[in-house]
Amino acid sequence: MDLTGLNAPQREAVTTLHGPLLVLSGAGSGKTRVITYKVASLIFDHGVSPYRIMALTFTNKAAREMADRIERLIRLPVRGLLVGTFHSICARLLRIEKVMGGNFTIYDTDDQKKIIKGVLDDLNLSDSRSFSPGDVAGRISGLKNRLITPERFDLQIGNVFDEQFASIYRRYEMKKRKSNGMDFDDLLIEALEMITKNDLLRDKYQEKVQYLLVDEYQDTNRVQYELVRQLSNKHRNITVVGDDDQSIYSWRGADLRNILEFEKAFPDAKTVRLEQNYRSTATILDAANAVISRNKARKPKTLWTEGERGDKLEVHYLYNDLEEAREVTRRIRTRGPKSTVIFYRTNAQSRTLEDELRNAGIPYVIVGGLRFYERKEIKDVLAYLRLLVNPADEVSLARIINLPKRGIGDKAYASLCEFAARLQIGPFEALSRLEEALEFTARERTAFSVFHNLCLALSAQRQETDLVSFVQFVAEQSGYLKYLEESEEEQAGERLDNVSEFINAVGEYVERNDSPTLESFLQEVALLTDMDAVKNDTGEQVTLMTLHAGKGLEFDYVFITGMEDGLFPISRAEEEGGLEEERRLFYVGITRARKWAMLTHAATRRRFGTTTSAFPSPFLDELPEHCIRRIDRTGGSTSFALRDKPAAAPLFNEVRENRQAMPSYEHFSQEDGLLRNGMKVQHPIWGKGTVVMVSGLADNMKATIKFQNDAVKKVMVKYAKLEIVGG
DNA sequence: GCTTAATAGGCGCCT
DNA sequence: CCTATTAAGC
Ligand SMILES: Nc1ncnc2c1ncn2[C@@H]1O[C@H](COP(=O)(O)OP(=O)(O)OP(=O)(O)O)[C@@H](O)[C@H]1O
Prior knowledge:
Largest sheet: 8 strands, mixed
Number of domains: 5
CATH class of the largest domain: Alpha Beta
Distance between the termini: 70 Å
CATH superfamily of the largest domain: P-loop containing nucleotide triphosphate hydrolases
Oligomer: single chain
Bound molecules: adenosine-5'-triphosphate
CATH topology of the largest domain: Rossmann fold
Number of strands: 21
Helix content: 40-55%
Strand content: 15-25%
């Protein structure tokens, strides 16, 4: 195969076939390309069967792209190659090996919270402030990522709180199991158990996986590490690529030690470093390198480019979030929407941007936030399908037993569950033994049996038709479509459209797969994010997403919005290492850009419906001045008056140090860097004026200026870009 | 059991 | 600001 698309170290990584290999390198250095070429070369040059190669990516989209690119490199369709995310590949193995019958339901965060809510109710902890379903879910996931089972947790109980939590955790696991369901963490854990506890299966998969390749290795967690070890244990041909500076998922259990200590875990490992960046301009790289070099916990690396210097990045200081959105929109209008991304730290920030883009008639697509498959109407239809595949699924049953309304309210459902518990069966199974129950009212009994007959009818139809017609049949016969049609709700029309779109998606799935089944469709869908539907940078539309979602992508033009202290870095990131992770996130953001980037700060922003003000992000001070142009459009007084309030003290000591280290501003030419009363200055917006008062020190220096039109403004010297025109 | 109105509470990132 | 949940009324 033609390896001329690779530089020397890349080629070395690709041609190192045997043993453990680590590629640890900075952004845009061609790590993903190494994996792609290596897989292609293994198949094409070395005759390795695609069935013997497993490649793990971070998103489904990355997996699909990789598979496409491999086929293009080989110029042949490839069958049997295992490319996917850890979660999707694990789900697939578990289904194939019929773990939990193979028809398990994958519970997303929403389902998970419902189970936990039920548990809290059972344990009378619902109104305990210490336990909210979301918190509990997060804590449970944290434990599971570290392979701490309820039994193991029991051993480390230290107080009453732990004890209560332990019983929640235990009961959650029990309920989930009763429903034949798995949460996201279970997919990895169960797959790991499967290959560690079952000798036959271990041999099978260790033998099968002749080559294992992992992208974005810096964001793998403990369980994923164990999986990697197990799967590569026989052939030991393991290639991992990653960048410790781009590790941004520690809150989800990602453990940097996996990549930093790879050589310890695999002592015979070879390490390759890629140092040439093929993505960004020199200016972008300078800026990114300067920022990331402030982190202490990292492996230093070199990153250079042969590319041109490119334009300076721009840092805009704006009055509020609306102005920010307008400024971004204005830039996009002149340049066009092609290959442009707008990043933000939190999903809630997208709305203002969206509104402005819509007003300006600029096409855009939002990635993240509410996933398509998380919409209510989609989850409703999915619940019917899940229940038919897995009748033990109590979350789905509870969701649709009275949707549309069938006269089975909370009370009736509760008494069904009680009856079921007495028989030690699930509530769905109980529906087929109604005659044994004495407690139901005549009305309830009829309602139950009508619902039960409906399910039987739907189930019977499943064998009769193809998948698409079946899903259509379910949507109709369940009465759900009718319910939407008759709904008075404003969004009812949109919901109906979404259901049709969902049915189209079933069609696409059927076309894409050799042996489509409802089971595999449901499991695939549970792991899809709407990242996966995003066109690769080609479309004539702007992409909006969080910085986290940007990992691994590239765009010509990058906008990073919301550069405010408390928002980015986010104020909650105060725990150990939190600031460094925020900085890595900033690094990831900047390095997505090929040509140019613009960063915006809004002095005030609407949050929770009220206006809040914030200091500029300390990260803005970490950018070398020769890489950037600062533009202040706050209009002087208003926003910076707010800065006088002591409310928002800098969050991090480290930040404060950085600030002091950074007082060089190009428009600020006086040797001692001080303005004096009576000086004549030029302000970019307000024009010429005379300094009447100076207050504050260093970065907090403020000048009160009387302008020629007699307006008196107080401005932050640091940002106002004052030019001294006479003393 | 169902509908409507009031209000609590949320926003950190995601498989 | 938005949505999701709860209380009150039918
Ligand atoms: N040897 C090469 N010659 C030319 N272009 C290359 C080479 N290697 C990679 N590229 C290009 O550089 C860009 C970045 O490559 P790639 O995505 O593989 O890097 P990466 O290290 O995985 O990046 P990141 O870690 O930032 O996601 C891509 O556009 C890719 O096509």
